[in-house]
Structures are given as structure tokens and as C-alpha cells.
Amino acid sequence: MPHTLHSVRETVETLWPLAGAEGWDAPGLLSGDPAAPVERILLAVDAVAATVDEAVETNADLLIAHHPLLMRGVTTVAEDRYKGSLLAKLIRNDCALIAAHTNADVVAEGTSAVLAAKLGLTDTAPIAPAADGVTGIGRVGTLTEPTTLGALARVLADLLPPTAGGVRAAGDYHQPVSRVAVCGGAGDSLLGADAVRGADVYITADLRHHPASEAREQAVLGGGPALLDVSHWASEWLWLETAARQLRDALPGVEVEISELRTDPWDFAILQ
């Protein structure tokens, strides 16, 4: 029996239940006819002009993006605004749009769990666990062999897709690290969490000046992690491979592809 957008949506919400989303989030079905057939899915971190064009050009019936296009207040979908333009293009080309955001972060094979696994962390647990103690935001675990902050930064740079910002580090290059906390995407809200404070290093994205500075000053005074700041897009792009595998297993006959396009917003950096 052919898959429809309705049945694919049910699968998506089974893999990444909407109940797991943060209250401020807006995942789920954003556009599309539930009765429409789905034979081809494109996965991307962001629904932006480049990935929407890719979905249309490759005849995808559905674009699944990690970041919701309509997460923040929208009062118009006029086509002289980019969100309206993207939605209009998707609708005119019979390509639906679904977002799986924080509901895909918290699950057992979510964004942070994938990053932790790629780094080889063992005995992992959520940084901010849900009531079940298994799911939750972020992951903390232990490297199979201790290393240094500089060496771990190099491993991370090689693991992630390249971006203009690369990997920024706060801490002694030769500092030994063993206990590692990770949060794919923006994670400065977890800087004060006990699991992060107890780690040797915290890997996340979008670290702002004041939260990062205060965390480092507190570490000097009373202990705390070194910091590795990476691209938001890159830290979550790794998850797409896992998401694609899960969708292929759950939706036999549906072609699932991953966008290789870099949607990190920064194009180049000049070192001083």
C-alpha cells in the first residue's frame, strides 16, 4: 500500500514524539496534504532556499527539516518575505514540510546522542533527563581513553562537516579530558547543569560571550569544564544519517536522501 503524508507523519511522530518537544518549540507538519502520496523524502537541518530548491529539483514529496520554519511569530506568508516564499514554492511543487526539532533531540538516538556516539563516549546519560531518566536534552559520558583538550578539538573538527567557524576552544590546549558533555545545537542554557559542571569539557554551539565568560571564570574559581564551541548546523547534521536509517526501516519503498548542502549561515572567517 502506498505511503501517504498522513502515514509518514504518523511514523515521524512515533520516532520523535511531539510530547518530547519543548514548550516553546513548533515541530510537526507545517504544510502539505495528508492524503498526498510520499515516495521520496529529503532530510535537512534547515528549511532554507537552498534545501527547498534541492527538494523541488529532486522531486521530493516531503522535506523533513530539523529546524521548524515557523518556530517564531509569523504574521504573514506573503511571498516578498522569505518564509512565505519558501512555503509557496513547496506548496506549488507538491512538496510537504515536516519539522522534527527538540522532539528529535531528546530521544535515545537524538542529535546529542548521535554526537556522543560518534565521539566514542561510553556510559552516556542525558544532561537534563526527562522523567523516564533515559531521554532528555544533551548527553554526558566518558571517553574510552583520556586525551587532551587540543586533541579532542582536532577529533571534533575532523568529525564534523567543515564550516567557516571551525571549532573554538576555551581552556588549556594540553588539559587532560575524559568526562565529556555534549549538546547539539545551542546549549548555553545547560552551562550551569550539574552534569556539565562535572565534566572536563562541554561541547555545544552558539556560545555567547557572557555565558561562556562566566562559565570559564567560575571554572577558575571552583571547577568546571573547558568549552568547545562548534557550528550549530554541523553539530546537528550528523543526526541526519541516523534519522534516514530509521525512516528507511519504518517506511519500506520510500526513498530517503540526506541533503549535503551546508546551511551554516557563515561563509568565511578571517583570522587575526
From TrEMBL:
<feature type="binding site">
    <location>
        <position position="67"/>
    </location>
    <ligand>
        <name>a divalent metal cation</name>
    </ligand>
</feature>
<feature type="binding site">
    <location>
        <position position="66"/>
    </location>
    <ligand>
        <name>a divalent metal cation</name>
    </ligand>
</feature>
<comment type="subunit">
    <text>Homohexamer.</text>
</comment>
<dbReference type="GO" id="GO:0046872">
    <property type="term" value="F:metal ion binding"/>
</dbReference>
<keyword id="KW-0479">Metal-binding</keyword>
<dbReference type="InterPro" id="IPR036069">
    <property type="entry name" value="DUF34/NIF3_sf"/>
</dbReference>
<feature type="binding site">
    <location>
        <position position="105"/>
    </location>
    <ligand>
        <name>a divalent metal cation</name>
    </ligand>
</feature>
<feature type="binding site">
    <location>
        <position position="236"/>
    </location>
    <ligand>
        <name>a divalent metal cation</name>
    </ligand>
</feature>
<feature type="binding site">
    <location>
        <position position="232"/>
    </location>
    <ligand>
        <name>a divalent metal cation</name>
    </ligand>
</feature>
<protein>
    <recommendedName>
        <fullName>GTP cyclohydrolase 1 type 2 homolog</fullName>
    </recommendedName>
</protein>
<dbReference type="GO" id="GO:0005737">
    <property type="term" value="C:cytoplasm"/>
</dbReference>
<dbReference type="Pfam" id="PF01784">
    <property type="entry name" value="DUF34_NIF3"/>
</dbReference>
<dbReference type="InterPro" id="IPR002678">
    <property type="entry name" value="DUF34/NIF3"/>
</dbReference>
<comment type="similarity">
    <text>Belongs to the GTP cyclohydrolase I type 2/NIF3 family.</text>
</comment>
